[in-house]
Amino acid sequence: MTQLALVIDLNVCVGCQACVTSCKSWNTSGTAGSLADLNPYDEDPTGTFFNRVQTFEVGSYPNTETVHFPKSCLHCEDPPCVPVCPTGASYKRAEDGIVLVDYDKCIGCKYCSWACPYGVRELDPERKEMTKCTLCVDRIYNEALPERDRKPACVLACPTSARIFGDVHDPDSVASKAIRERGGYQLMPEWGTEPSNHYLPRRKTEMTIRPDEIVRTDNPLKVDGLKPMPDASTPALDDAASW
Amino acid sequence: MNPAFSVILLTTLTGAGQGLFLALFGSELAHALKLSAPMPGHDFYVLGALISLALSGAGLVASFFHLGRPERAWRSAAMWRTSWLSREVIVLPAFMATTALYALSHAMSWPITLATGAIGAALALALFVCTGMIYACLKFLQEWASPLTVINYLVLGCASGLTLASAYAALSAAELMTMMTSLAIALTVLGLATRSASLLRNARLRPRSSLQTAIGVHHPRIAQRSQGLMGGSFNTREFFHHRTLQFLRSVKWTFLLLAFVLPVLLLAAGAMTASPPLLWLAFAVQYVGLLAERWYFFAQANHPQNLYYQTIS
Ligand code: SF4
Ligand code: SF4
Questions:
Q1: For residues B33 and B114, what is the distance between their CA atoms, to the nearest angstrom?
Q2: Which of A90, B61, B113, B246 has the maximum number of C-beta atoms within 10 A of its C-beta?
Q3: Which domains, from first to last, does chain B contain?
Q4: Are strands A122-123 and A46-47 parallel, antiparallel or unpaired?
Q5: Which residues 109-168 of A are in CB contact (within 8 Å) with B?
Q6: CB count in 10 Å sphere of residue B157
Q7: pLDDT greater than 90 at residue A242
Q8: CB atoms within 10 A of CB A219
Q9: Nearest CA to A106 among A129, A125, A140?
Q10: pTM for this one?
Q11: For residue A49, which residues of chain B lie inside 8 Å, CB to CB?
Q12: Mapped to the 3 state alphabet, what secondary structure does chain A carry?
């Protein structure tokens, strides 16, 4: 059985909010209806977003690390938001595991948002219907789009490729490999919701420099004025060093 | 959570309506079983059932204000197999219909009053269970996820209904007044015990989730720098009561006083002096107390999603 999901690499996310704007732009323009945008240019702007990026500071100064944390529906394998819905508007698709809201059935009772421990469902203040990440279900199977664009809008927008989209039940998918090889984990595992989205932890980045890298002519660490001026004919590692 | 007035009114109004119905049917049953209970005329039951119907009807109206799309409310009966909210949506109108039939059968002196009353009583009890389970089934809302939640909805609803029945009996069926007031006092004292039990339980709760499990970073010091929003969002509006701890604490003492202590004193005084005004006052005071109790019930619940909004929580 397929379970589509996102794997989010906290090690490379720079908190640029590109996924947030790209998500909003795609999903507010779709056929399912717009997402509210109240006071966008005034005090207290607010509105509906399927995806938000938060920032946390870990450790105490000066030994701190900044963690940018993108947060959207995790498409839980055992979603507590689904059985509580009185109308059946909230459901999990059998064929690909995406958790969706049938907007036309939703009565806006908010019960499902109470039943989601992650706070990723948002009642649209204008439509008065519950909304949440759809994994861009209207993109990923969309034959009107070129093949390479059939991915969630956030994944396409991410400049650091921090978002991997794929089937986490297929052990050979890029997503599953990333989870396996880079310590992918789930949020709040204590509630047994089995989120399908995984997060990749931050890793120590170490710089290694070999001695010959320090003395060679194209060493970028050399002060400009002290640069040796080799002959134009001397072979060099790149064009810039040959002047 | 941010307490919604529609839900506070729904649960307190229908709770009193269910309690009143149980009191009416209980007195009829006690008479039928020859438990030395006097049986007032049919009029007492007709008007009483209509008052109960009016209360649950008002609760039903209030519940519509909770919905974003009330015009689609009929759809909410669909998922009764999995959703306690859906079950409540079915049981409430069924209870109201049975209450109406109970009033009618008394008005027409049909011999089916006991049978209808029994069905109505079963539905009233089922409705308490549905209402309580809506909250008790959300396991990560640890303040609610306890059998005490269901017990409190049941006991507090019955207490409020019996207090109302006492006041009503004092006006129109004096022979029932002593029985009703003693039961109302007993249930109110029981309610104080069960509600205090849940207050004590909640005071000792250890949250199972932490900021560490919420974002999966296992470091003891994590500070939030940005919440992913500027002017707030659904998540900052729906899940926070936006009041001080002090305010919360004063609401707690207020409801302990108004819902339990004062009503017991007023009920006792009213019964001893056989004074309807005192008994009606007892009902009014207790109802206001229960409004505060329900507000506190919602405000006290700390949703794990609040971990992602450290600046507000
Ligand atoms: S993250 Fe929340 S809304 Fe999404 S499937 Fe899980 S419980 Fe439901
Ligand atoms: S808000 Fe809509 S989707 Fe959520 S539980 Fe209510 S009806 Fe279902």
A1: 11
A2: A90
A3: 5-307 (1.20.1630.10)
A4: unpaired
A5: 109-111, 113-119, 121-123, 125, 127-129
A6: 29
A7: no
A8: 13
A9: A129
A10: 0.91
A11: 228-229, 233
A12: CCCEEEEEECCCCCCCCHHHHHHHHHHHCCCCCCCCEECCCCCCCEECCCEEEEEEEECCCCCCEEEEEEEECCCCCCCCCCCCCCCCCEEECCCCCCEEECCCCCCCCCHHHHHCCCCCCEECCCCCCEECCCCCHHHHCCCCCCHHHCCCHHHHHCCCCCEEEEECCCCCCHHHHHHHHCCCECCCHHHCCCCCCEEECCCCCCCCCCHHHHHCCCCCCCCHHHCCCCCCCCCCCCHHHHC
Delineate the domains of chain A, giving CATH numbers in brackets: 4-200 (3.30.70.20)
Residue type, position A224, single letter: D
CA B80 – CA B274 distance, rounded (Å)? 46
Query: What is the tens place of the pLDDT at every residue in A57-116?
Result: 999 989 999 999 999 999 999 999 999 999 999 999 999 999 999 999 999 999 999 999
Decide if A183 touches B, using CB distance below 8 A: no
Q: How far apart are CA A177 and CA B56, in angstroms?
A: 56
How far is ligand 2, taken at its centre, from the CA of residue A85, in Å?
Answer: 5
For B234, the 3-state DSSP assignment is helix
Residue contact B228–A20, C-beta within 8 A: yes
Q: Which residues line ligand 2 (CB under 6 A)?
A: A 85, 87, 89-90, 101, 106-112, 130
| pLDDT, tens digit (0-9, with 9 covering 90-100), for A154-190 | 999 999 999 999 999 999 999 999 999 999 999 999 9
Q: What is the mean pLDDT of chain B?
A: 96
A225 touching B (Cβ < 8 Å): no
Ligand 2 centre from A88 Cα, in Å? Answer: 8
User: Are A57 and A198 within 8 A, CB to CB?
Assistant: no
- Is the predicted ipTM greater than 0.85, yes or no? yes
